Amino acid sequence: MNQDDRYGNNINDDMERLFPRCISDESAVVLCDFLAELLMVADTRYLCHLMRYRKAHSPPVDPQYPWRKTNID
Questions:
Q1: Is residue 16 part of a domain?
Q2: What does each C-alpha distance from 40 to 2, 11, 26, 53, 71 come to in angstroms?
Q3: Looking at the DSSP assignment, which residues form a beta bridge with residue 69?
Q4: Structural domains counted in the chain
Q5: What range does the domain containing 50 cover?
């Protein structure tokens, strides 16, 4: 069962309403620039929160082999 089956077409309808396919190239650029700027502001504003969360939820790393995940057993 996929999301469309569970929620009908609500997700697709919402996406089409929020991000219609038939917009001008200029509108697409303005929208994407705005979203990128919004993301940068949010990252800057919540940088400490993001780092703290990621540090608390990242798996342990072996300093000798940082590409390997260590078992927590």
A1: no
A2: 32, 26, 21, 18, 35
A3: 61
A4: 1
A5: 25-60
Ramachandran angles phi, psi of 24, nearest 5°:
-70, 160
Single pTM value for the model: 0.59
Determine the Cα–Cα distance for residues 42 and 37; give it in Å rounded to an integer: 9
Residue 38 in any domain: the answer is: yes
Locate all alpha helices (DSSP H) within 1-46, ordered by sequence: 3-7, 10-18, 25-45
pLDDT tens-digit series, residues 50-62: 999 998 988 787 7
Q: 6-44: per-residue pLDDT in tens?
A: 656 688 888 888 899 999 999 999 999 999 999 999 999
Residue 3 lies in a domain: no
